[in-house]
Amino acid sequence: MEYYTVPNKYGAQIPLQTEVRNKLSSLDVVWGNMYEGEDIDPQLVLEKEVEFYRGAPPKWLNFYCAEKNQKPFVKRDIYTKITELIQKKRETNHSISSIDLFHQPGSGGTTLAMQVLWDLRKKLRCAYAIDSADSKAIAQQVIHLFNAGGSQNQNTVLLFVDNIETEANEDMQFNSLQENLIENIKQSNISASTPVVIILNCLRKKNKTGKEKLMLCTSLSKEEQDSFNAKHAKVVKGHERHKKFHGFNIMQRNFSQTYITEACEYLKPLKTKKRPRNAQILSFLALINSYVPGSYLTETLCLEFLDKKNQISGRPTLEKQMEAFADLLVIYSTCAGEAKSEDRCIRMAHPMIAEKCLGLLTDAGVTLSDTTLKLLSNLCPQTVQPYFMKIIKQLLKKRETGPPKGEKEEKLPFSQLIQDIKEKENKSKCVGLFKHAAKKFPEDAFIPQALARFYYIELSDYAKAAYWAKTAIQREPNNSFIRDTLGQVYKNQLKNQNLAKSSSILQIAKQAFKAFEVEAETAERELEPGMQEDGVTNISTVFNYRGLFGYIQAANTIFYKLSKVNPEWSKVLRQEAKQSLIHSEKCGKYQSLLTSLRQRTEDKCNFFDKFLIYSKLKINKQEPDYICKDTADCYNNYVKEEEQFFRSFAGLLSTLSHVTSVSDLEQITEQWKEIHVDSQTDSDALNYILANIILSQKSASSEILRTVPELQEILQKLWDRQNENRSPEFYLLVLLLFWPDSAKKTSNTPDLKVCVQYMRESYERTYQKYLRFRYLVPLFFLGNGGGLQRLVHQTDFTSLFVEEHETAEIQGFRRIQGEIRNHKVFALRGPDQIEVLPHNPASVYNTDLVSFYLGFTIRGPVAYNIRYVKKSAQFVDKHKKNIIERVKKVDLIINDLRPMIPTEQYSTIKAASTNNEKMEKLYTILSAGYEIKDTFYQSLLKNEQGLIQDLTKFGKKSSN
């Protein structure tokens, strides 16, 4: 082809220069004019069509020929939902957005995603991410593709990312891609009126929970069944060997098990001894395609195994040697076009066929463990290709999410293969398989780690579990997650073994504490510069807190175990009694451990107070309940329950979650007042101020509440004494109490721009290491009230700030007027311009006036629900006459604007006799600025949706 084209946002096709195309090596771009005008060999077209129907992944050529020859692919019902969602995403104020498409293995998810890209190639710049792990390269190239043709021709990229999951953490890689995209948008100084990229993220998922918004399943609706039947009739007419088209036929038969049984019937009887090598290849494929959907073996690997003498020249082709099983297999090229050599691979025609073949093999006596051992022995040379090593790891150690139990999804203890071998064969087979793999891959730490877990979970053999956990550590000593297993071994031994003597309990406890402490120290170092540059260690994107939490769990167990031996131990552990019991129980050598245990556990409990209050896993995902429970239990065991809410700033914040009595909160506030007066430490002063804020959330009329000026005065003194290098909590209170409004200010009000900068620096020093890649919880929002009542403590509001709910109006929250400049957000409060962080960085893509809700995290002020107000204000001005004349629900709209209208003017508007008069008077107030116009527009959307739609259509017609 002489040139390739991509569409601009108006649909015009823009030719791409060669140098631009050369920068897109990580993307498989679906060109707007792909294959058009090319002389394509009809035989190649037929080959690719047959390959696809038999079960190979589709090629872009398949879609081109189907469209050209008017033989379109069957559209699944979910196709329309996806295309409609994409259109909605195009209309949002986000530079980046995503759509998650879950699909059960073998349901056609990849084909569906490619079908969407092909059909939209002339409207959007569509591309498939070739190597989803290389997020930096993908992000750079997406920006190149978006910008191709110059700033006047920019257009949204629709990026298909297939199964973007990592072994360590399923969300981190996707987050990395989004962060790299945002960074590249900033660096390229993109300020566009159209979204930069919409990510179609395809995720294989075996079990459906009902929470998935889009999921393609292995079942057809009646409409889909009718479409496949009609397509089947055409396929039968066009192909004599259509009965071998298992990839298509399985779907057309609605994934029928009867069809699968009939298709595999000719394999019987299967040999179990002296099996020919091609039959062994079949068993290997059945294994990996059953447990690792989408996996394959390369032609080269198969031929090397089939040819004992390794005679490269003159040997039969792979097709010839696998001819006996050809109907159930598909051999295809991973490259587009006519490439047929180096990249060719082989797999089963469908995952259901793979599972059936594997079942026939096991029924005949060829066990799963035997097949896996032979796979490791025969197909894993000294140097294993990365793609195949990934398959091996998924077979042996990737823990899948099991069937949902109620609303919870829990990972299986081991990989699905290991689970099945354990249940269908025996546990010793699992051990043998792990040992063989550990020997086969002497540098891999994850296999001995999995073996250690198997020993302590399934066999309760703690000595061997410890041995293999230490082996894993030797292989990767700088990985804290690998180190965690040794601590878990000792912790479970401590918990599960019947230990009658105090000394025996303490002996194992000491080993557990030591293992968890070393793990925690390793986790602390995992982001230090030396660790990043050593070229060996895989740096963890998230902080590994398991060592700290494991210590807490072990501390709980030792408390219960020792107290059972002798109730006096509880007082010793709390340091409420003399240490004589230590010696009478012959535990003198553990005295150092016992005397330091209370303080060590208290420190770790304080860590989790902050960790769980200031952050969570994701905006819509909390930590497991047992983390909070075990932490609270540990604090109650080693300190005192009644002191729980006085231990830290974060501990005080937690009171709003479970202390509902005003009298209890008043008591807490009074106690902090006494502590503050007596101690005069800065931290006690901060806790006293916070106690007042918390009390105000429950009782604005409490007699013991201090006024805002009184609390400001306390903070002002601290600020004047030292305003730099303080805690994030100090700066948080300064922002909460001094944020510009009508509240009385002291003469030397803290500079909030400086305060925000100091707070971010303090956060980076104090918490960034621990909270990296976690969602920072908004602790308070700015509301419509006055004094302390203008602060609204977060409860469940964060659910309204996910992308699809960002237009939601929240009762009692105040919208702040702001501005976006140079990809930064500023809050505008009179003469003040204070930089705030965007809750969703993808919503910051254009220089414009905005409004938003203001929240405060432990990192600083954050703009939530950013709305570009200039467009709404322009709409209100443009259609003033029509709006005044046609609005019916005037009183509802006036009520929505009530917090923004001065009392006297509000009374004047309400006193007007007609709707038109009310609206005219309301418009005189709208001149106050963009913020009130935007609120007015949002109220119109809610109350006069039909009118807005009519005026929008009218506006489009008049502009054409």
Automatic annotation (TrEMBL):
Q: Which InterPro entries match?
A: CARD, DEATH-like_dom_sf, TPR-like_helical_dom_sf
Q: Which GO terms describe its biological process?
A: regulation of apoptotic process
Q: Which positions fall inside the CARD domain?
A: 874-952
Q: Which residues form a coiled coil?
A: none
Domain of life, per the record?
A: Eukaryota
The GO cellular component terms are: cytoplasm
Descriptive protein name: Sterile alpha motif domain-containing 9-like protein
